[in-house]
Amino acid sequence: MPVREYNSISPSVAERCYIDESSVLVGEITIGADSSVWPLVAARGDVNYIKVGARTNIQDGSVLHVTRKSSGNPDGNPLIIGDDVTIGHKCMLHGCTLGNRILVGMGAIVMDGAVVEDDVFIGAGTLVPPNKRLESGYLYVGNPMMKKRPLKESEQAFLKISADNYVRLKDEYLAQI
């Protein structure tokens, strides 16, 4: 697996995960069971930690990083991603917290200190500025983001379906190894 130690700390990957050989995971990173990290993902848990929950998928070309601890921000900002989360292609997640059953659309950016509650859609190309809170059950779009509307029942159901689809796909990839 493409994992690298930093300051004597190595990434920890749970059972039944798929980590593509072209991705890079460095430092204090924890990946939960049945999760997947796809081609060309860069994740650096060097100046703080990254925690990815179970059944979560990080798609191609995404970048995951954290905020350093400082006198103005003693804890810094780790990157915390919950369970059943879909991170679309080429997303940037930096020192933010994402709850469970979230879909982050392709090319979206979620910045330091932002908190995304459970059951949220973030549209493709959306910019979530630092320290914003995205309320559960809504679609957010735009640059900068704005609350567009409540999620439809079918959209809320799709959040779990999307995660389940990627669990099946990673199982197919693991069967070929």
TrEMBL record:
Pfam families: Hexapep_2. InterPro entries: Hexapep (IPR001451), LbH_gamma_CA-like (IPR047324), Transf_Hexapept/Carb_Anhydrase (IPR050484), Trimer_LpxA-like_sf (IPR011004). It comes from the Bacteria. PANTHER family: DYNACTIN SUBUNIT P25, PROTEIN YRDA. This is Gamma carbonic anhydrase family protein.
